[in-house]
Fold:
Amino acid sequence: MEGFVRLYDQGLIYRANRLCNWSCKLQTGISDLEVEFLDLEKPTEIVVPGHKEKITFGTLTYFAYPIIGSSERIIVATTRLETMLGDTAVAVNSKDPRYTHLIGKSLLHPIIKDRKIKIIADDILVDMKFGTGAVKVTPAHDPNDFDCGIRNKLEFINIFTSDGKINENGGVYKGLMRFDCRKLLFEDLQKLGLIIKVEPNKMRLGMCQRLITLEDVMIKKLLGVEIL
Structure:
């Protein structure tokens, strides 16, 4: 304790909230070295602890946010649909002629009715040639979004409990396991006419090295991933 206090007084260490790798099963943070990645080339069903059914990974879901006071909508895409419950902004590139007239306007969150989401300009985060040119920003659950949140002084809304359930910030989905929420949320957004499309998406899926099971090994073999 004496050592930490001295370092703190000298300005050499500090305490702050940051994103980390978290194991819902082990209830602990894990280092980058303890994360193994599956490289998915196509939509793939994988067993996830705490869920009865296999979960499909390797898809990109496009959905729309209605713009308040306008008939326009802005379309974003995500591999983790449930994180839209923690969105606090949609970012565009300031040089993108498709969206310059929308910067500063607000979006209506279709699920969390009392939350307004701002359209911001962030040329560091957004490549206007990639995807729709509009990026949903969830500062509490993505490293790039975290930095964007710091730059633009956005609200950080955590939507998960430590065991992977949706917390009180998730509205009607509170108490659901995150992937069960993903499925129900997709259905609800579809009913609202806000789901645009779902398409295959190559991705890297991080897995806790401490919890590798026989099925994980089989998945790796099927995917042609080297077992360390």
The chain has a mean pLDDT of 91. Residues 139 and 146 are 4 Å apart (CA to CA). The first helix runs from residue 2 to 9. The chain has two domains: 15-58+202-228, 60-201.
